[in-house]
Design a protein that fits this description.
CATH architecture: Up-down Bundle
Largest sheet: 2 strands, antiparallel
Helix content: over 70%
Protein name: AEC family transporter
Distance between the termini: 22 Å
Keywords: Cell membrane, Membrane, Transmembrane, Transmembrane helix, Transport
Organism: Lacticaseibacillus mingshuiensis
Strand content: under 5%
Shape: globular
Subcellular location: Membrane
Order of helices and strands: HHHHHHHEEHHHHHHHH
Pfam families: Mem_trans
Number of strands: 2
Number of domains: 1
Length: about 325
């Protein structure tokens, strides 16, 4: 987490100093979303499959859909005192966090490859609702072809589905024998490039390793491009930030603990921690773009994005510590 904070602060400082131009953060984010994150998502599925990991992955997929259905009905409640567009915008902004750009790099740094795999699976439900419900609510229109294309032709989505399918079917594919890292030999599917074509896997790994530092730099540059003084004067954005970064992940954690304790949907520490970190992320860039594009409280959405990012950076170490304490107490 010190790495996260230091690199974000570096991006903030370089932007304030003028070394990085205002648009440089957008360029970095495009590199992350179109190249680095797809490589990271795909590589995470280059792993052995076992019954436990498969069961965990399927539970993550199911919960990744259920939690967004729950949030669709729950998130309007804290904003009943607001009317019209403002309530709609606050509700949609609260549902969808920056799970891809903010969440996955932190999950990868804290929980490793298995966490990245779970976060990629969890994001399937997120993207379905983001590009359908989120778009419809903010635009007031029905789904259009362009948005359906965004949903399925996004590089991260393509890499996730490709990796997930290859991971699931690897046992029924032609096998090859390779040297095992622990000595002896092992049998893997022919397309397991982490074992059979390291000359191809290694460049993907280099690209995947760019995800975290470039994402955190971009966040810092974005923070350095917006007036904190103006954003901080908006009490509604502070209230929203508390709901998004504290209450939403808390609701997610409590429900998961109940499901785990009752064995309705048992998930291990890595899966629970992954999903809680993903839910503790600030405003999604796409929802902010919706608000601006359709003129739904655009200024408030921009302020909320800035403040929720700051609150998330501060709160994330605490969330990770809480998850580790609960794990040590045997609740997972």
């Amino acid at each position: 987490m010190t790495s996260v904070i230091f690199i974000i602060l570096l991006g903030f400082y370089m932007r304030k100093k003028g070394t990085f131009a205002e648009n440089f953060g957008k360029v970095l984010s495009k590199v992350v979303l179109s190249v680095a994150l797809p490589a990271l998502a795909f590589n995470s599925f280059m792993a052995d499959i076992d019954s436990k990991t498969l069961a965990q992955g399927m539970n993550v997929l199911i919960w990744g859909i259920i939690i967004y259905v729950i949030l669709i009905f729950v998130t309007p409640l804290p904003y009943l005192k607001y009317k019209g567009d403002k309530r709609t915008t606050l509700s949609v902004l609260t549902i969808f966090g920056s799970t891809t750009f903010f969440g996955i790099p932190i999950v990868g740094a804290v929980l490793g490859p298995k966490g990245i795999m779970y976060s990629s699976i969890f994001n399937i439900g997120y993207r379905i609702f983001l590009y359908s419900y989120g778009y419809i609510r903010m635009s007031g229109l029905k789904m259009d072809k362009d948005n359906i294309k965004k949903m399925f032709l996004n590089p991260v989505v393509i890499a996730t589905f490709a990796g997930l399918i290859l991971w699931l079917i690897q046992g029924s594919m032609p096998q090859v024998t390779v040297a095992a890292a622990t000595g002896g030999t092992a049998t893997v599917a022919f397309y397991r490039i982490d074992q059979t074509a390291k000359w191809l896997f290694q460049p993907l790994s280099y690209l995947a390793n760019l995800t975290s530092p470039l994402a955190w730099l971009s966040i810092g540059i974005t923070l350095g491009s917006i007036s904190f003084k103006e954003a901080a004067s908006d009490k509604t954005s502070w209230y929203y930030s508390f709901n998004k970064v504290i209450l939403v992940p808390l609701l997610n954690l409590v429900l998961l603990l109940i499901l785990n304790a009752t064995h309705i949907m048992p998930v291990d520490y890595t899966a629970i921690a992954t999903m809680c970190i993903m839910m503790a992320t600030p405003t999604a860039a796409v929802t902010s773009a919706y608000a601006i594009s359709f003129d739904h409280e655009a200024v408030m959405a921009s302020d909320a994005s800035l403040l929720s990012t700051i609150v998330a950076v501060v709160a994330m170490p605490f969330w990770i510590a809480i998850l580790q304490i609960l794990n040590a107490a045997g609740l997972f």
